[in-house]
Amino acid sequence: MTDLKTDAEKAEEIKAWWKENGKSVLTGVAVAIVGIFGWQQWQSHTKTQAETASALYSTTQTTYSAESLESLKADHSSSPYASIAALSAAKHFAESGKEAEAITELQWAADNAKEDTIQHIAKIRLTRLLIATAQLDKAATLLSDEFPATYNPLVEELKGDLALAKEDKSSAAEAYRRAIFQSGNMAPRYLQMKLDSLGNGV
């Protein structure tokens, strides 16, 4: 069929269509542009945050910096850099004889780490330090938490240390034996030494 519409008629139809649909088309384009821009902004922000956290973490590793550590914990608490830096700070404090400060950092890592592995490591180290500082009830509470099976030897060893701190040699020996058994061929010699130190009667 021959198209009998004149150019003027076609122009009028285009104008009418645009008048009816132009606003929604422009809105759709605007939304798309905003969406793309927003995604790019979010990516840029995320990258900047990660780079900042990395830089602060590097500062805490080269030399202990309380300011950098607190900035990491306050502004980048969801970053693994923050919890790892807290573990490093705890080690620094423990080696300096500042057990209370070390406990604070380990507790922060245990409470705030988003990675399960870091959280479990923090709890293990915290438990060991709590036992060393005679905070036995708190240590027992931590040991009642669930840990993956791979941590069983460490957990049993700490249960032995806790029992020994309570002067319960029998329970300590049982826990050390479980730790040795669950370690298999990988059992460290010091576990057997801990068990042997309890004497033959347990």
Can you tell me about this structure?
It is a single chain. With 202 residues, this protein is mainly alpha-helical. Among the domains are: 52-135, Serine Threonine Protein Phosphatase 5, Tetratricopeptide repeat; 146-202. The chain contains nine helices and no strands. The radius of gyration is 31 Å and the shape is elongated.
In short:
With 202 residues, the chain is mostly helical. The protein has helices at 7-62, 66-75, 80-95, 99-112, 116-132, 136-143, 152-165, 169-183, 189-196.
Characteristics:
mainly alpha; protein-containing complex binding; chaperone; membrane; 202 residues; Serine Threonine Protein Phosphatase 5, Tetratricopeptide repeat
Strand and helix layout:
Elements: H1 7-62, H2 66-75, H3 80-95, H4 99-112, H5 116-132, H6 136-143, H7 152-165, H8 169-183, H9 189-196
Could you tell me the radius of gyration in angstroms? Answer: 31 Å
Q: Proportion of β residues?
A: under 5%
Find the structural class using helix and strand composition.
mainly alpha
Oligomerization state: single chain
Number of strands: 0
Keywords: Cell membrane, Chaperone, Membrane, Transmembrane, Transmembrane helix
InterPro entries: SecYEG/CpoB_TPR (IPR018704), YfgM (IPR026039)
Membrane topology: Single-pass membrane protein
GO molecular function: protein-containing complex binding
